[in-house]
Amino acid sequence: MIERFLLVRPYYGINVHTDAQGEYGTVLGSNDVFPDLPLITAATILNESDSHEVKVIDAVTEDRMLPDELLRKIALLEYDKVLVKSTAPTFKADLELCRHIKAGNPSAYVMIDGQAVRHLKDWIYANTDIDLAIEEPVDMYIYRYVHGAAATVSDMPTPDYTLVNYRKYTDDYNNIRLTIQASRGCPMSCAYCPYIKYYGKYESRDADKVIGDLKAVTSLGADLIQFRDQFFTCDSKRIRELCRRIIDEGINVRWICETRLDSLTPDLIDLMKEAGLFLICFGVESGDQNILTEYNSNKGNIDYQRSTVEYIKNAGILTMAFYITGFPEDTWETLHATYRYADTVNSDIAAFNEYTEFNLSSESDISPDIFCSFENATAAKGLSSLSKEEIRYAVELFSTMYTLKHDTLEKAYNYNHKQLCDSRRLASKLKGHENDLDELSRIIRESS
């Protein structure tokens, strides 16, 4: 007997990168549309099984299908099990979507996935009709469900992007950007990182499979490939071998990766460039060494970082640095130090992000209220002595100043002000309506 699965990524008018922050999800201040790689990989596993059928509804790529339309579409389908990919910013709405699905098809087995689910598992079972709260990455769960054994990252199939409308995964410049994975997890122990607790120990994907992934995805006409590895050059010898194979096999691809600057050498940078590296992203986080020490994060000294970034830029590779604004230990002085540090590192792009507390194990009586709807924030206690308004001011000011220095006033306005204001304005209208998906949908339509 064939078991029918329906995998759903909903959309609530706010642009959320569901595969970011270790699958907590991140509200974006841009128009970039990212694939959810674990969800697509899970669909691929089911599609390759003789005992299962799968349909994927990625509402983001279905012309940003709103929840009322999504529910009407689901009502017309036949399925045995349905899985909803949740995020922290949309968690309350995701729960309401699951409630509607269960009410419309009481015999269906309803599942919810995403790292936020780990914290709310007991609450979900006590307060909802959801049948299963999945506490691990969905691709790992589905692999074990189908094959009866735990999986490594090398066991995963090449993601089949034809299961979704993959041409809608575009960046601000309308490049089709698809994602693959050469490794998962990280051997570091930065205390603020949400990836480590969810993905666990570092493991690499077999090089032959990575090459196969690259060939399959580039054949679809992708303009950019982004490696979703948390620490791409963790094993530099392996990355050298991978780059040489890309070059030797004539794979014409532009790609993006995220890594640590202290793992790079000039010869490795040159080789990665020859193999198609287009943009490299890295965390710097704070300009205050005491804060980095407190969070067990050592990124190297500023002279090394600055000289490495300069070498990368001279090689013709774009650079993007990540900074965290609003650590619990931050003051006005340390925030200013972080901006001065960013100015010295001088990457092409700098992303200043608000600190989010993901260490929620100490929170008692945890409920969905721990996650702030349509925001990159939690209601956890013990955050910075600075107010949210003060931290947001710093983020917006730093982002605007940095963009203005490296680009144009028009870009600073569009990227660091207008898109952000539009998103926050809509979010403020949506708050309080997470349990009324029809009203939520109406507000989004009227606001567009």
Notable traits:
single chain; pyruvate-formate lyase- activating enzyme; 2 domains; 448 residues; Rossmann fold; 15 helices; alpha/beta; 5-stranded parallel β-sheet
Task: Walk me through this protein's architecture.
It is built from 15 helices and 15 strands. The longest helix is centred in the C-terminal third of the chain and has 22 residues, at 409-430. The N and C termini lie far apart (45 Å). It has a 6-stranded parallel β-sheet. Strands 4-1-5-6-7 form a 5-stranded parallel β-sheet, with helices on both faces. By secondary structure, the chain is α/β, with parallel strands linked by helices. It has helices at residues 37-47, 67-75, 91-104, 115-127, 138-147, 195-199, 207-218, 236-248, 266-274, 289-294, 302-314, 332-345, 388-406, 409-430, 437-447; strands spanning 3-9, 16-17, 26-27, 52-58, 81-85, 109-113, 132-133, 177-180, 183-184, 203-204, 224-227, 255-259, 277-285, 318-325, 349-354. The protein has 2 domains: 1-161 and 422-448, 3-Layer(aba) Sandwich (Rossmann fold), CATH 3.40.50; 175-406, pyruvate-formate lyase- activating enzyme (Alpha-Beta Horseshoe). Helix 2 (67-75) runs parallel beside helix 3, helix 8 (236-248) packs parallel to helix 9 (266-274) and helix 13 (388-406) runs antiparallel to helix 14 (409-430).
Secondary-structure blueprint of this entry?
Layout: E1 3-9, E2 16-17, E3 26-27, H1 37-47, E4 52-58, H2 67-75, E5 81-85, H3 91-104, E6 109-113, H4 115-127, E7 132-133, H5 138-147, E8 177-180, E9 183-184, H6 195-199, E10 203-204, H7 207-218, E11 224-227, H8 236-248, E12 255-259, H9 266-274, E13 277-285, H10 289-294, H11 302-314, E14 318-325, H12 332-345, E15 349-354, H13 388-406, H14 409-430, H15 437-447
Parallel strand pairs: 1-4, 1-5, 5-6, 6-7, 8-11, 11-12, 12-13, 13-14, 14-15
Antiparallel strand pairs: 2-3, 9-10
Helix pairs in contact: 1-5, 2-3, 8-9, 13-14
